[in-house]
Structure formats: C-alpha cells, structure tokens
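4.2 Preliminary Data

To establish feasibility before requesting continued support, the project team ran the inverse folding procedure on a target of 122 residues. The structure was first converted into the token representation described in Section 3, and no sequence information of any kind was made available to the design step. The complete token record follows.
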C-alpha cells in the first residue's frame, strides 16, 4: 500500500505516532466508547504500541487514519486497521477503534463525505 490512498474529498493514510492522541481520543469519545470492543486499544500508550507494530510490520498489521478535506486542508475524521489472521492464506481481519469488521468515523464528521469512504477509495 502506498503512503496515502486518495478518494473524492477524503484519503486514507498509515497512522504515525503523531496520531496516537487522536486515535485514543476517538476510542474514548462518548459516542464511541460504549461500543468499544474489549480487544481494542483505548489509551494513548496502547495505541502507540499498535502504531509501532503497524510501522514495523506493515504486511502483518496496519493502523490507518481516515481524513476528510475541509477548506483546502486535511482533517482527521476516523480510523481503521487490519491484523493478519493467517500468514499462509494472507487473510486479514479489518478492525476499527470500536470493533472488528468495521470502519469508524468520528461522530462530528459522520454527515460529511467520510460516510462515503467505502465507495470512494479505489
């Protein structure tokens, strides 16, 4: 995967350590936290560990930030990720800060273009 995948008014990029606070804040958001999977990282340190793994083992783990374009600049709006489930077949599980198998969009951005993420990315 390239560093950034562009869509129509949104993009997906691999998370860096600079995103740890945002991802932890997203996981702790009042509209998100009640739906958190017990397996998902919730605090900044645990999120940092996931990001470090994503950067060190990019084929086995990925943590990504979803960004939306707003007034000519990119704004973080959500997150998603994957973990390799079977090295033999290459099967992976999609994960978000909330649960396995989903993409989470920050509640304040839910009515924006980010909602169209599954259809916008190549």
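Position-by-position output of the design step:
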């Amino acid at each position: 995967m390239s560093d950034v995948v562009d869509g129509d008014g949104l993009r997906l990029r691999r998370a860096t350590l600079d995103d740890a606070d945002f991802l932890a804040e997203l996981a702790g958001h009042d509209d998100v936290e009640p739906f958190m999977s017990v397996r998902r990282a919730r605090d900044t340190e645990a999120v940092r560990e996931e990001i470090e793994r994503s950067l060190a083992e990019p084929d086995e783990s990925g943590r990504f930030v979803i960004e939306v374009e707003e007034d000519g600049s990119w704004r973080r709006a959500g997150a998603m990720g994957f973990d390799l489930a079977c090295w033999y077949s290459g099967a992976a599980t999609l994960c978000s800060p909330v649960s396995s198998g989903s993409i989470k969009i920050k509640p304040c951005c839910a009515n924006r273009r980010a909602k169209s993420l599954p259809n916008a990315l190549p």
